[in-house]
Amino acid sequence: MLYREAGQFKSSYDEDQAIFPILQDRIMLAIVLIVAFVAVPLLFNEYWLSTIMLPFLVFSLAALGLNLLTGYAGQLSLGTGGFMATGAFAAYKLAVAFPEMNIIIVFLLSGVITAGVGVLFGIPSLRIKGFYLAVATLASQFFLIWMFNKFPWFTNYSSSGVISAPPRAVFGDYFVTGSSASPQAKYLFALAFVALLALAAKNIVRSHIGRGWMAIRDMDIAAEIIGIKPLQTKLGAFAVSSFYCGISGALWAFIYTSSVEALAFDITRSFQILFMVIIGGLGSVLGSFLGAAFIVLLPILLSNAPTMVGLNISVDLISHMEFMIMGALIIFFLIVEPHGLARLWQVAKEKLRLWPFPY
Amino acid sequence: MSLTKLTLAAVGLAVGVSGFAAQSATAAEQFIPSLVYRTGPYAPNGTPFADGAMDYYKMLNARDGGINGVKLVVEECDTGYNTDRGVECYERLKGKGETGAAAFSPLSTGITYAIIDRATQDKIPVFSMGYGRTDASDGRVFPYVFTAPSTYWSQASALVRYVGGEEGGMDKLKGKKIALVYHDSAYGKEPIATLETLAEKYGFEFHKFPVTHPGLEQKATWLTIGRKLRPDWTFMWGWGVMNQTAIKEAAAAGYPMNKFIGAWWSGAEPDTRPAGKAAIGYKSAAFHSPGSNFIVHQDILKHVYGGGTGTTTEDKVGEVLYNRGLINSVFVSEAIRTAMGKFGNKAMTGEEIRWGFENLNLTEAKLGKLGLTRFMKPIKLSCANHEGGTPLRIQEWKGQQWEFVSDWIEPMNDIVRPMIEASAAKYAAEKGITPRSCN
């Protein structure tokens, strides 16, 4: 019904290879983008924009980055928090050292720096695989956080080791960081980054780069035999993934909390993002967003729910209930669909395309 | 505890809180947000603080019907000591009530850092009592942040002064070794710069020992301190489970307890009780008395616990962190009262309460009226000085309770204040803030 493709003919290879071959998908995406770019900033209040939408966007980007590495290239990583911290501190150092540099350039450069760090820590992936690699990337997590804590140069000798984002404008005096930036400006800035990078990710995974990653993921020896170089492919995956995570960390420090200490990116952050990827769906761009929504938005919803329905229960009980319900839901979803939330959507879509005669 | 009991307790708690929150009337109401952590790794220390803060507001409502007839409506939000949850709580609560939130006390240095910008923009005071950003004591650069009654830098200087007195004079500190065991976070790092400056001035050796969050692993640290370095004095900037672990490990390594002094966040019952006998003799700084022998406690027991609406159990009233939460509420409510003196007896806005904080003057007479005689020292804030710089006292764990073992010790304001002003000026330059004039 909704997804009936009757009448949609593809008369050229270009059309057949389009990023969204089904018309309904294109319409839906357009609606989502219009809602995100126009309706949300107009309709949502400050609380929604700055404490629900912003962390969702930041985490989506980090999850997307990790998904490229773990979901597509099959390299299990626990270093996401460390890479996010790298991005945050790189952006801070760049922004403070070069006050006239545009904030967009600062963010892109901090992504590039993080990509370099990611490649460095990705080198062990050439020798070790799976869980052993996870342990090796764990080292990067601990090392990077330790480094930012240890050397006061990274925080410009702040007595407490906390960096605080200086006010910067995209153009003119349209501030996106600092206290004078409006929540709308912050949201739109983060959204633009996330939307463009998601589009890039979608295209990368359809290109020869992404196919190389998937070949390595599925069987690295076979991939090598058909001519995919493991060195470039694996390190490329680490670079691209870290680039995403770095920008996500910079967004966290500059746009979301606007001040950050290295401890905010500790090992629990890495796990949190790994869970997003697993619950959302490994190897799916959509899954990164769904996973982030599940892990970020649901707890906030759960902690607000009792007061919303007029139930007056103490805050510690709410917090404990939140943990229990979250845990139960994670188990529930993993039992119902081990391939993640994105897979649920995919199954639904297949069914709709064949409706009313699904088999 | 059986399941039935647990359910009963939960229901009781729910009813208690709802009974408190549902007291809405037609009269003016002042909304006060309370950021707490009753869950997470620091809950054992966060809970008594939250209880004390809550009970004092409840007492004001029960005894006086609020402040000058304006009822206080308090809502808690659990942060779990997480900065991102703290920001969420801040945004959730800042607009509630008829005039918005009165003042935020984030109870976490990380959250304080994260909301300073926002609160300044939203014109809501941030009252970080004895934590947070020390240089925010400079009211010219941080108009909306208050660090009263003291800061980590002042505390570090007072500790050095105390140690100097114990050694028989500040000149005797030359060549002595002082170690700092600290929580490796924004909080724990705050005193380092001050101690380094003082080490240079008085010629003592200063050694740093960071402990990673949450602080359960300190064996190597204490082996070095207790067996190898053997410092003359050890200070600790710890929080939560780190404190009791440190006390146990120090005892195991044979480090003398009477040479071991904690910061004011490292000296409460949840820190010393789990360490048992080993903790006897352990010291810590404090800016208020322990115990419940004060009129304010009698009022709380009478008006709140007498009515069965207490947040915790009666035997917890008067614990160190309970009293700390209480004093936090005293500052906030007195700032509101001061503001009402100028703007009238109605619900105050954040901007008006900021004025109240800046003109806060808790004299001995006023403290007496509040039932706080001998509980704390008089304090006065001003436009430029948001700290007040109260003197500190050293308390010692006697095995069952904390007792004062020193007189009030003045911090070295002549050293700390210029450091605060220099650091605030650096912050202002980085953020592009023009400091306001306070004349």
Number of helices of chain A: 14
Estimate what percentage of residues of chain B fall within beta strands.
5-15%
Q: What is the helix/strand order of chain A? A: HHHHHHEHHHHEHHHH
Radius of gyration of chain A: 21 Å
The counted number of beta strands of chain A is 2
- Total number of strands of chain B: 13
The biggest beta sheet of chain A, please?
A: 2 strands, antiparallel
Rg of chain B: 21 Å
> Distance between termini of chain A?
15 Å
Strand content of chain A: under 5%
The helix/strand series of chain B, from N terminus to C terminus, equals HEHEHHEEHEHHEHEHEHEHHHEHEEEH
The amount of helix of chain B comes to 40-55%
Low-confidence stretches of chain A: none
Order of strands across the widest beta sheet of chain B? 6-5-7-8-9-12-13
Largest sheet of chain B: 7 strands, mixed
* Poorly predicted residue ranges of chain B: 8-25
What do these coordinates show?
The complex is a heterodimer of chains A (359) and B (439). Chain A is mainly alpha-helical. Chain A has a domain at 44-264. Helices cover 70% and strands 2% of the residues of chain A. Chain A is built from 14 helices and two strands, in the order H-H-H-H-H-H-E-H-H-H-H-E-H-H-H-H. The longest helix of chain A has 27 residues, at 46-72. Chain B has two domains: 3-150 and 292-389, Rossmann fold (3-Layer(aba) Sandwich), CATH 3.40.50; 152-286, Rossmann fold (3-Layer(aba) Sandwich). In chain B, the strands form four sheets. Chain B has a seven-stranded mixed beta sheet with strand order 6-5-7-8-9-12-13, sandwiched between helices. In chain B, strands 1-2 form a two-stranded parallel sheet. The interface between A and B is large, with 42 and 52 residues.
Question: Quick recap of the structure?
Answer:
The complex is a heterodimer of chains A (359) and B (439). Chain A is mainly alpha-helical and 359 residues long.
